[in-house]
Every structure is written in C-alpha cells, then in structure tokens.
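FYI - complex with nickel (II) ion, inputs then prediction.
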Amino acid sequence: MALRTIRTEGDPVLNKVCREVKEVTPRISELITDMFETMYEANGVGLAAPQVGILKRIVVIDTGDSGALAMINPVIVETSGSQTGDEGCLSVPGKAGCVTRPNYVKAQFYDEEMNLCEIEGTELLARCICHELDHLDGHLYVEKVEGTLKSVEYGEYEELED
Ligand code: NI
C-alpha cells in the first residue's frame, strides 16, 4: 500500500477521458488499494483514478453509509429528483461551491472480480457518484458551480464531500 499524489486543478490529466478497464490485473488491485488509502488519508469521501494520474475508469467511494465501494467502469443508468448543496473536491483544495445534482442515482459497475454490480444512492451518495463519474470524463465540479466558488478552511468540507 502506498499513498499516491493527488493531482490538482490545472493538471491536464484531470481533463482527459479515461479508458475502460478490461481486466483486473495485480497493478489495478494495487491502484484500488492505494486509492482507498489516499482518499482516507485526505479525509475524502470519493476519489477517481485520474486524480492520482491514472486514466482508467475506476472510482472509490466511502460516504460512511456506503461502506468502502470500488467501482470499475461505472455508468449511471437512472437518475431522479434534484438536490442543491455545497460540494468540494480533493483536486480543488480549500474551495467549495454549490452544485445541483440528482437526488437519486442508480449505477452499474464491475467489482474487483469483474462481477457486474448495481447500486442505488440518494443524497450524499448520489452526489458523490455523479461527482466521481464526472472525473472519468475529464470534468470537475467547478464547471457546474452556481454562484461563486467559496474559500473554505482546509479540511472543513472534505468530511462532507470529496
Ligand atoms: Ni473530485
């Protein structure tokens, strides 16, 4: 296990479209382990592979209620409702901004054994899934902020949102 460096806004790797994972090699398993460690160390609730410089469609999430969730090749298959609230990102340190997201999300993904899985989430988990999947297509939440991006004390928002 090892902590990986979290890339920050301005790093071109954050604006690239990630590739699908074809098989879970030992390197991919190690990446997922490292992503969890890196996310927990930074007090985040989600982390996408491009945030550690790897252009693969992998995200890790742990909102508390969700438990540790590694999602490979995730896709959102259903959404409903909406929620508006503050969001932050480990790649945009010290900032938060108001973003509207669906209040319910259903997603399909592969687990580390490449079994097809499905998850439903509301509120924070729905927000987190949307935020992390956007990273896989090169998008940051700052593109969607309503109003101004606020400065927050370091560490303040990460416990609420990645
Ligand atoms: Ni993020």
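Residues 26-41 form the longest helix (16 residues). Confidence is low (pLDDT under 50) at residues 156-162.
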